[in-house]
Design goal:
This protein is α/β, with parallel strands linked by helices. About 30% of the residues lie in helices and about 20% in strands. Strands 3-4-9-8-5 form a 5-stranded mixed beta sheet, sandwiched between helices. Helix 4 packs across helix 6. The longest helix has 13 residues, at about 150-160.
Length: about 260
């Protein structure tokens, strides 16, 4: 059984703080730009006026995480399956450390902190009237094992920041699939066929902002977008924490779903 987020947070606060990427002492944040948000302290516990905080990345590592320069269109075999994607950062080894901590170390408190850093880099969706924020869903059994859906936690914080409604029930995963990170490009597409269902009563006529943590081939995002369009969503775009082209060099594997 994994250590709970409360115990882990207390340990992080009590022990000598070191960067989770390079292992050096984090020290006090020195930079004040948007990129330094990834070196800002994370609140791991709060009770009244009591706040326990820790830093996950040092300034040097945080500033090495590159911002993604703007939206892109995910490639697809037909124009109807194309999706406009808005990544916040370029996926690298440092960003993977944060996603690993969030997904596999019960660090749920990282999600709103990460969403704040994303919001500073993404376009402002707060004026997108008629839009709803929808997280990429997990299989129910997988979510029970983990205890939460990291995409939903990030989406909730982004929706709060943009003052848009969140609908975590608009899209569900209805068929078990193999972990995308274990498959090749061709197998990823067939692996997700028919895996998602969108509720037309929730998305019909809406502009949907789909939220995920990491996007690589875009197969999951496209499968979700296809389900949403099939349920008569008006438009679908996606935002994510990190994106990388599969041809880009990266040391170490992507996190398993």
């Amino acid at each position: 059984m994994g250590v709970s987020w409360l115990v882990q947070g207390a340990l992080d606060f009590l022990i000598d703080e070191r960067c989770h990427a390079c292992g050096k002492h984090t020290g006090e944040p020195q930079n004040h730009g948007e990129a330094s948000l990834l070196s800002a302290p994370v609140t791991v516990f709060s009770l009244g006026s009591l706040r326990l905080k820790t830093r996950l990345l040092c300034d040097t590592c945080a500033l090495r995480v590159q911002r993604w320069p703007g939206p892109l269109t995910l490639p697809a075999q037909d124009t109807l399956s194309r999706v406009s994607l808005h990544p916040a950062f370029v996926t690298d080894e440092r960003l993977l450390v944060l996603i690993h901590l969030l997904k596999f170390s019960r660090r749920e408190r990282i999600a709103p902190w990460l969403a704040r850093a994303m919001a500073a880099q993404l376009k402002d969706f707060s004026q997108a009237e008629g839009s709803i924020v929808v997280p990429v869903p997990m299989e129910r059994s997988a979510q029970r094992r983990r205890g939460f859906n990291q995409a939903e936690r990030i989406a909730r914080a982004l929706a709060r920041h943009w003052k848009l409604p969140l609908d975590a029930c608009a899209l569900t995963k209805v068929r078990p699939t193999r972990a995308q990170s274990t498959l090749g490009r061709a197998d990823r597409l067939t692996n997700l066929a028919g895996a998602f269902h969108a509720d037309s009563s929730r998305v019909r006529g809406a502009d949907v902002i789909l939220v995920d943590d990491l996007v690589t081939t875009g197969a999951t995002v496209r499968a979700c977008a296809d389900a949403l369009r099939g349920a008569q969503a008006r438009r679908v775009c996606a935002v994510c924490t990190g994106y990388r082209d599969e041809a880009a060099p990266l040391r170490g594997p992507l996190p398993q779903s």
